[in-house]
Design brief:
CATH class: Alpha Beta
CATH topology: Rossmann fold
Largest sheet: 7 strands, mixed
Number of domains: 1
Radius of gyration: 16 Å
CATH superfamily: Vaccinia Virus protein VP39
Low-confidence stretches: none
Strand order of the largest sheet: 3-2-1-4-5-7-6
Oligomer: single chain
Order of helices and strands: HHHEHEHEHEHEHHEE
Shape: globular
């Protein structure tokens, strides 16, 4: 991958962290915000649909949607370690034949990825330096809806991000965390033809589902 940030993702989200998150997922299921997004998606229906999951970690969202009747999933993940554990979990759950895995930077690969009914980016926007390109290209792949979990632009999160990035800088690590304003994310999706379906906030995170708006002829 040519993207320096993606090289940082590969290093930070390593096999040890991936295995730890897989064990936690098997014990407790998806995280709180991931559950909220899954519930919002399931409420609009997924039977027979296709999913593009960008940076999906161990695969919590695809697993839930496949269990609910989704037809197939394509996962694009910059961390090879997370891709490997997601593939192993898919095999264990008997859904590997409905799942395609791609390793790399989604922005670099977007033109070669076919559209899907829905696209998810769960805690991905904060891991990427070019929010506009990431969200806009994700929107071009979404035929019906797009779901996101991303940080709230709060003082608490900004202090945490600054501390984390400072430590990584001192350590010579290429990864950085990025906080993008909610209104900027919404503006990109609005310009791409999407409107808010559901929106929830926790102390630190925005959880949002957008629907593609039909245009008149």
């Amino acid at each position: 991958m040519s993207c320096r940030q993606c090289q940082g993702i590969e290093r930070l989200f390593n096999p040890k962290l991936a295995e730890q998150e897989l064990r936690q997922y098997r014990r407790r299921g998806p995280s709180k915000t991931t559950k909220i997004l899954i519930e919002s998606i399931l409420a609009r229906g997924v039977s027979g649909s296709t999913l593009l999951d960008i940076g999906g970690g161990v695969g919590a969202i695809p697993n839930a949607l496949l269990d609910a009747g989704a037809e197939s999933v394509v996962s694009v993940e910059a961390s090879n370690a997370y891709l490997e554990v997601a593939a192993r979990e898919a095999e264990r759950r008997g859904v590997a034949d409905r799942w395609t895995f791609r390793h790399g930077d989604f922005v670099e690969q977007a033109a070669d990825i076919p559209p899907a009914d829905g696209v998810t980016l769960d805690r991905v926007i904060c891991c990427y330096h070019d929010m506009h390109s990431l969200v806009q290209l994700a929107a071009t792949r979404a035929r019906r809806w797009i779901g996101l979990v991303f940080p709230s632009d709060t003082l608490l999160f900004r202090i945490g991000a600054m501390a984390m990035n400072g430590g990584l800088l001192l350590a010579g690590h290429p990864y950085r965390m990025f906080l993008h304003r909610r209104r900027d994310v919404m503006q990109v999706l609005s310009a791409s033809g999407f409107a808010v379906n559901t929106s929830r906030r926790t102390l630190l995170w925005n959880v949002m589902l957008f629907d593609r708006q039909l245009t008149g002829t």
